[in-house]
Amino acid sequence: MAALVLTVGAAHGEPLIVAHRGASRDAPENTLPAFRLAWEQKADAIEGDFHLTRDGHIVCLHDRDTAKVAEEKLVARESSLAELRKLDVGRSHAPEFVGTRIPTIAEVFATVPEGGKIFVEVKCGPEMIPALLREVKESGLRTHQVVVISFDAAVIKTLEKKAPRFETAWLSSFRKTKDGAISPSSEKVLETLRAIGADGFSSSQDRIDQAFIREIQNAGFHYHVWTVDHGETAKRFRQWGARSITTNLPGPIRQKLSE
Asked: Low-confidence residues of the chain, pLDDT below 70?
């Protein structure tokens, strides 16, 4: 279904350029200024992190609490939307962003243009899915414009059962075991993808090679990579067939890939 999306990347068989938490090098991450700037920089898609509040709203925030982005520490699931909206999450980035607030998912959806996509990273658990489906319906976005991603396999499995029409990807980074092996192995990744019904696999750029990616693709799954801010690295993953490249620098990476 994603092949029908009218984006710059898709139109030329190129990987989608996905703005990681928006254009997060140039504006406060996961905020409306960052997402709007990402579209100005010709991103094909934006990626945001989402939590469920105490009163059932979905807000855009990476960590479970606000310590990283605001002067006051509030835990998302223990706070109301009104409480979270009082916080200034732009001040620490640059003076021009003073007064920036944590956005709701509805506000983030509203930035997505015709032909654009949004990668929704569910940072809590499957309990968000009912609210997420309502928000997508109310947003007017088409199904193919929304990709749901999560490190929590249960989130993907739940969504695939409730709304299999949405594209999904399971997220994982890699680590080296004591014997030097890479974990998770390609066998473990494929086992997980099949068990939860995911459409694809999204990984960090480290400790992965073309052979690993080809195994994922040959098994019928999409491959996505994050977070790539170096042009030559982006070119390498394009050559390896990544379906999307997530970056903090959508404008420069777009320029580098067009050279």
From this structure: 1-12
Q: Domain total for the chain?
A: 1
pTM of the model: 0.94
Give the range of the structural domain holding residue 152, as residue numbers without chain letter.
2-258
Tell me, what CATH number does 45's domain have? 3.20.20.190
Q: How far apart are CA 189 and CA 69, in angstroms?
A: 33
User: CA-based Rg of the chain, rounded to a whole angstrom?
Assistant: 18
